[in-house]
Amino acid sequence: MLTDQQILRIPGPTPIPPSVNRAMSQPMIGHRGESTSDMISDIRPKLKRVFGTEQEVMILTGSGTSALETAVVNVVAPGETAAVIVTGSFGERFAKICEAYNIETHIIEVTWGEALEPSAIKEFLQEHPEVKAVFSTYCETSTGVLNPIAELASAIKEVSEALLIVDGVSCIGGVETKMDEWGLDVVVTGSQKAFMLPAGLAFIAASERAWKKIGANPRPRFYLDMKKHRDNIIKDTTPFTPAISLLFGLQQVLRLMEEEGLEEVYARHRLMMEMTRSAFNALGVPLLTSGEDASPTVTSVQPTDFEAPVFRKIMKQEFGMDIAGGQQHMAKTVFRIGHMGYCSPADMLQAIAAMEIGIAKAGGAVELGKGVRAAQEIYLNEGKR
Amino acid sequence: MLTDQQILRIPGPTPIPPSVNRAMSQPMIGHRGESTSDMISDIRPKLKRVFGTEQEVMILTGSGTSALETAVVNVVAPGETAAVIVTGSFGERFAKICEAYNIETHIIEVTWGEALEPSAIKEFLQEHPEVKAVFSTYCETSTGVLNPIAELASAIKEVSEALLIVDGVSCIGGVETKMDEWGLDVVVTGSQKAFMLPAGLAFIAASERAWKKIGANPRPRFYLDMKKHRDNIIKDTTPFTPAISLLFGLQQVLRLMEEEGLEEVYARHRLMMEMTRSAFNALGVPLLTSGEDASPTVTSVQPTDFEAPVFRKIMKQEFGMDIAGGQQHMAKTVFRIGHMGYCSPADMLQAIAAMEIGIAKAGGAVELGKGVRAAQEIYLNEGKR
């Protein structure tokens, strides 16, 4: 096998574009100097466009979880009650953070592979008027479900004053996000998914309503204090030492996104999702989620006539291609294909053609070329729209 | 379209492996220091294995043509007659170099897309006993023909004392070469093809027989004087300043080749050729060369129901994929796919799936998925051998 070839098709991290790798290898600069301020000044408006907000998007040096914790400690005051929508293992993470802070937390469990119905959150909040904050994933990475965040936000607003805090880690940058228009109160994401960067940066923004809450919240915090971050970013700086090389990369990533056009970026992600789903449908290999609940960034597959772990091992051995496993109770029954960030329709054609071989080698029934053909048809029809 | 993605499927340069790019970005070192000598000492035996020779393989700082010229000026003495086997545009280059030196040169023309029959060179030399040197390409890059070099060498030896000088630029490193066993007198290649490096280095080795000729040859030469190069490389150094970053890269490339195993490298190239050829056969798109004459490193396609230039433009626009055109009189009727160097079966699955779309968009008749299926079947059968 060709050595030194790794084809990363997991739901994050994604491959890094060459120009971003080059940007990240620039010589270090002082983080209190003018060059860093100029860079942050260039980044700020572009980051706001990706979030769909006029609010400041703050840049934390930390992984996605640091931003989830930032949301919890800034928004939920001591003694307040929260609710967490759990559609998979990343929903659970919000619950664990709340638990670590002894926050009274309701768990709204949804069957893995399904999204939450907006009516369900409405009913829940009518029964639980004490809830001050609702946490939800946007894309649930562990299942490939995209929760209907805009609809959840309006359902919540109809019956409650609770703030909606959204974990967009595995989709923002690849899926349209209109934070202000949809009325999302806190939105969080990380750098290593649709942002095409290594892990190490996290981004967070808050609505006016949320900022009021944050300002009045006496819960102790320091590194993760959103007010400190906002006071600094509006002056094109950061309260603590930023990961400069990742900022170099972020600046280039945002340039690439604007060069392609945000609408085009989102259309490319939808196209890759449709190509992937249509391929497995054509091959008769069951998908975990319905088309309605599916995320444009990650697809979960639940094979019935071959073993997912065997298949994944074959893909790695034969093609150097990394396909993710399922998580927790789905660890051995599901595999997940990332199609986000630095990933193209041509990459999906490759992944699908290679996966057909992988399925055959894993003992699954497969009509060679049929999945590729379905994906090609989607691609060709897309062009005709 | 995803910006910053370029999929290079031309017959050289090929993509560079990431570890080779990293190696090439090491800080400069002095080329007369111990580190450079250690590096050349590490490179020498590995380069000999790729050439299949016990002779020294000399490293020139220059492109492939510098090594072709090196062969001419060192091997052909003033007043001697040469013959050049021309199976395409790179055969012609040898003839042009001979012409520049006013060397009396016979041209043995072969129809583009075909290899030379060993019997033909035998007959030719019987009629032309004055010929002292025969020049031939191994792989003719412009057509994707692999000349039967071992057979040509023995045919020549049967009837003549003429030296055989081989241009292996677009195949050595991807195709087995047994210089000593086959009796090749001078073998030349460049860095940017199956060696997976940028252009800038060229390699040349000579047989005992050729060295005698070289030693006695009074033709003036300096930078390209093979004797100067040999006197230095045996002391792990070079007569002139070498391209150090390319040497860093060469050292890593040779490590990768040995890690994979040379036999495996050659098998991978044959597999990629078979996958590509079977795909076009299944799609009913004519290939330029027969299976017998085909090179494992490049495939030429001669479509009848769509325009090659239109197709190539579509491939670039849709997928950022570079497919080469034909050369000279075949510029507009042929396209060429490189499958050498840093290129894998997974890359060929991608290229084939994408090319099916390209053919459809160029107006060619194509049954989607059929070429991919044929390639997948080749891949699966290969594994069973």
UniProtKB/TrEMBL annotation, chains A, B:
<dbReference type="InterPro" id="IPR024169">
    <property type="entry name" value="SP_NH2Trfase/AEP_transaminase"/>
</dbReference>
<dbReference type="GO" id="GO:0019265">
    <property type="term" value="P:glycine biosynthetic process, by transamination of glyoxylate"/>
</dbReference>
<dbReference type="InterPro" id="IPR020578">
    <property type="entry name" value="Aminotrans_V_PyrdxlP_BS"/>
</dbReference>
<dbReference type="Pfam" id="PF00266">
    <property type="entry name" value="Aminotran_5"/>
</dbReference>
<keyword id="KW-0663">Pyridoxal phosphate</keyword>
<comment type="similarity">
    <text>Belongs to the class-V pyridoxal-phosphate-dependent aminotransferase family.</text>
</comment>
<dbReference type="GO" id="GO:0008453">
    <property type="term" value="F:alanine-glyoxylate transaminase activity"/>
</dbReference>
<keyword id="KW-0808">Transferase</keyword>
<dbReference type="InterPro" id="IPR015424">
    <property type="entry name" value="PyrdxlP-dep_Trfase"/>
</dbReference>
<dbReference type="InterPro" id="IPR015421">
    <property type="entry name" value="PyrdxlP-dep_Trfase_major"/>
</dbReference>
<feature type="binding site">
    <location>
        <position position="336"/>
    </location>
    <ligand>
        <name>substrate</name>
    </ligand>
</feature>
<dbReference type="GO" id="GO:0004760">
    <property type="term" value="F:L-serine-pyruvate transaminase activity"/>
</dbReference>
<keyword id="KW-0032">Aminotransferase</keyword>
<dbReference type="InterPro" id="IPR000192">
    <property type="entry name" value="Aminotrans_V_dom"/>
</dbReference>
<protein>
    <submittedName>
        <fullName>Soluble hydrogenase 42 kDa subunit</fullName>
    </submittedName>
</protein>
<dbReference type="InterPro" id="IPR015422">
    <property type="entry name" value="PyrdxlP-dep_Trfase_small"/>
</dbReference>
<feature type="modified residue" description="N6-(pyridoxal phosphate)lysine">
    <location>
        <position position="193"/>
    </location>
</feature>
<feature type="domain" description="Aminotransferase class V">
    <location>
        <begin position="28"/>
        <end position="329"/>
    </location>
</feature>
